Amino acid sequence: MNIRAAYPDEIDAIRALFADEVAAGRMLPRTVDEIRAHLDDWLVAEADGAVVGCVSLVRFNGTLCEIRSLAVHPAYRGHGIASALVREALALARQRGIPRVLVLTRAAKLFERLGFRRDFVANFPEKVWRDCAPCPFRHACDEVALIYPWHEHDVKEPADVPTYQLS
Ligand SMILES: CC(C)(COP(=O)(O)OP(=O)(O)OC[C@H]1O[C@@H](n2cnc3c(N)ncnc32)[C@H](O)[C@@H]1OP(=O)(O)O)[C@@H](O)C(=O)NCCC(=O)NCCS
Question: How many domains does one find in the chain?
């Protein structure tokens, strides 16, 4: 399994990874144009010659970005691929000098294991204004907000964050 930057001809494969979640109302859709315009913000996991996982980093401003659209093909789940994708997304945020990495998720345990801390989405007005306010699920949101506290991890980084080679 290899984690690397996404290629333009992989956009359909990326969207297919979370199409069922979007259809079920558990993840927000991402359009082809949106992904193409920000392809540098996407990472994929490749295994057996196919794209089996993806994640994106959405930048709000110079100090805050968000991990979004994390998905792994059902046949490949439970082997640490999502965790590896999140680690690489953290490495990318660090490389770009963005000190706070936010996530809204139902898979809080996965993120807590990687060092994220629970927080309140209300503490991130950038997120609330841009995504929560227009979200059709805002009145029944069951996602947990977590933040990666770089300052607590500074002594350990970057050794325990990047584990895969980006191409
Ligand atoms: C969540 C998801 C990305 C995990 O992928 P993965 O490669 O299996 O994850 P890892 O192997 O690195 O870690 C597994 C951990 O993920 C968590 N997890 C997996 N699926 C989960 C789910 N549906 N809800 C909550 N937590 C989940 C569990 O904590 C699990 O830990 P466990 O082994 O102790 O049970 C994958 O199940 C998926 O694509 N789900 C659909 C999309 C989604 O929910 N994305 C998250 C949006 S932030």
Answer: 1
Taking the centre of ligand 1 as the mean of its atom positions, its distance from the CA of residue 81, in whole angstroms, is 9
| 13: CB partners within 8 A, 6+ apart | 44, 50, 51
What digits encode the pLDDT tens for the residues 114-150? 999 999 988 998 888 888 877 777 777 888 999 998 7
List the CATH number of the domain containing 142: 3.40.630.30
159 assigned to some structural domain: no
DSSP readout, 91-122? HHHHHTT--EEEEEES-HHHHHHTT-EEE-GG
Q: Pocket of ligand 1, candidates 68, 72, 90, 114: which has the most ligand atoms within 8 Å of its Cβ, to mutate?
A: 72
CA of 84 to the centre of ligand 1 (A): 12
Residues with C-beta less than 6 Å from any ligand 1 atom: 18, 21, 70-72, 77-83, 103, 105-107, 109-110
* CA-based radius of gyration for the chain: 15
Q: pLDDT digit string (tens) for 31-76?
A: 999 999 999 999 999 999 999 999 999 999 999 999 999 999 999 9
Give residue 87 CA to ligand 1 midpoint distance, Å: 14
Give the closest residue (by CA) to ligand 1 atom 10. Answer: 80
Put simply, whether the predicted model's pTM sits higher than 0.85 gets the answer yes
